[in-house]
Amino acid sequence: MNKFVSSIKVYFARKILIILLLGFASGMPLALTASVLKVWLLENGIDIKTIGLFALVGLPYTFKFAWAPLIDNLKIPVLHKLGRRRSWLIVTQFGLMFCLVGLGYYGTIGDLGYVSFYAVLTAFFSASQDIVIDAYRVESLREDEQGAGAGIYIYGYRVAMLISGAGSLFLAEIMDWGFVYLVMSGIVALTSLVTIIAKEPLIKIRERKDETFFDWLKKSIIEPFADFIKKDYWLVILLFIVFYKFCDAFAGNLTSTFLRDIGFEKSQIAMVFKTFGLVATLIGVLVGGLIVKSISLIKALWIGAILQAISNLIFVLQASIGANIKYLFLTVSVENLTSGIGTSIFLAYLATLCNKKYTATQYALLTSFAVVGRTFLASSAGYFVAILGWERFFIFTTFMAIPSLIFLCWMTRCLNCKKVKLKIENS
What we know:
Layout: H1 2-9, H2 14-33, H3 35-43, H4 48-53, H5 59-63, H6 68-73, H7 84-108, H8 112-140, H9 146-172, H10 177-190, H11 192-197, H12 213-228, H13 234-244, H14 246-252, H15 255-261, H16 266-294, H17 297-311, H18 313-321, H19 325-352, H20 359-370, H21 373-377, H22 381-399, H23 402-426
Helix pairs in contact: 2-3, 2-8, 2-9, 2-10, 3-15, 7-8, 7-10, 8-20, 9-10, 9-16, 9-19, 13-20, 13-23, 14-22, 16-19, 17-19, 17-23, 18-19, 18-22
């Protein structure tokens, strides 16, 4: 009982609540360049194959490790007085505000080229903000708090996606899409208030006196990556990270488009999928955090992987039934509950892989690999829908969980072998 009480109590610590607010800041931009933007494109008559390719807008999330060392090490003039993490947060948050205004303007006049440009630029600032927030979270929390930190971060993230996702769809029923993006830009600007009240993590920063460019290159870029590849089976770990949420991401790439295509109204999608789904996700996140706290992380990863794979089958029934609002509640409950569990467990796992000497760079590397499935691999989803149809498409996405299960099996076997070896050596 005491263990359960202590597990719940950690969620009310000040630093955990700051992570909640930063999770909100992190979650605001994604839907505006993903599901919401795709609905807008569909209403403007853009074909499903082109809409599917808009998953490539998320490429900055895949390559963010390339500039993470700069964010980890460079000072911003004047703003650096706020601290290493908070100064970069201010820059990325106001960059996001500017880009969303541009995205809304050019989307209104129907210039697909500029829409693509501002969508990618928005993703760039969003990915940069994520680099800083992830580093802040890992540096601010003890190892035993990482599960709770990951869970509360997703809480904030999902609430923000509710506002930017469902809120945008509701607003689009009564106003022009361009004005919707202007409103969302204003909300993003308000997130800078979180940065002001947050405390800079107490992490010692190395001195750079008399440091040459090559010294900086070695310590800022080469050493973080060299440190990571010292891990046993590091390549298997990276491949596992790529595929862990792949089946979830491939199906999720066109979820809003799917619901719109089979006959649901924007307001229905917002009401059920975006709002009711939030409750299911938050329950899933809490459950995931408690699972991490209660059992070994490797066992928790197995639970998350299996649940995510099975949950895709619920969309097969939704596709066959059609625009049935009652069944949509069940679809949303299952999909968001399992996704919340899997994501909470996954983020806790990533945090344990980081050396705090190189937090931003290493975490950016890991999360970059994690979104490969959401960008490169998921960009072809529209072509598969065109060939297979919705029902067979979602069946197909379920089998995409197989690679992650294979790598997880390998990791479990290696871990068990290591435990046996240590037991023999200590006997």
